[in-house]
Amino acid sequence: MTEPLLIERRGDVVVWTLNNPESRNPISEIETVAAIEDAVSEANRDPSVRVAILTGAGSAFSSGGNVKHMRDKQGMFGGSPAELRQGYRHGIQRIPKALYHCEIPTIAAVNGAAIGAGCDLALMCDLRVASTTAKFAESFVKVGIIPGDGGAWLLPRAIGMARASEMAFTGEAIDAATALEWGLVSQVVEPGDLLDAAHTLADRVAANPPQVLRMTKKLLREGQHQSLESLLELSAAYQAIAHTTADHEEAVDAMLSRRDPKFSGH
């Protein structure tokens, strides 16, 4: 069987490529779910990895759920209502949980169509860059289902409730230019420049102290649901750790010496 997720390392950056281009990279197969989980777990354990880029092989980023499997009621789409519920909980819903708890910054390099759960997959990443050929659709209503993978939580946080409602209620796709205007992505580039643009952004992020990057991401996550008081307490604790790192000393010395810092992750 073909590996569902290709993993390539370039310096401090790891690239995860969905690898089922013939079916437009669906993410509802349990093998793909497990591969994404494993990739995130490995990145969390490896302090030398600073940023991850997620993209798709072929012309699509991800088609989301496998519609043919929906028709045939295969895999997570089969069984009684109770079995379907468990299929989602122990299947595709493992992906947003994994990416939410990914400790390093993640960048979606959206090379083509990001449809349904594929759109939500891009939203699970911290940053998004898109090819001019990309399109995004919260298209669940078009196949008579609801966003079952966290899209109703992710999309309004990315583009606001009104625009999220328009995408979710119509199921219609928006192009890359509209995605940029709405703030769903931060850059749009020509197809041949996409991975270079993603790597350039990743390198800008990875240039910073890795421990601080991970703590900063955690604070941004916690800030979505904690009170100001509790977040300030967590920030104080993290800051106490940051101030005692060798990378903090290196950053201050480099700034005062007007030179480029060299961070060790310590």
Q: How is this structure best described in words?
A:
- The structure is a single chain.
- By secondary structure, the protein is α/β, with parallel strands linked by helices.
- 47% of the residues lie in helices and 15% in strands.
- A hairpin with a 2-residue loop joins β1 and β2.
- α1 runs parallel beside α4.
- The longest helix is centred in the N-terminal third of the chain and has 16 residues, at 30-45.
- The radius of gyration is 19 Å and the shape is globular.
Number of strands: 9
The portion of residues forming beta strands comes to 5-15%
Give the mean pLDDT.
96
Q: Give the proportion of residues in helices.
A: 40-55%
Strand order of the largest sheet: 1-2-3-4-6-9
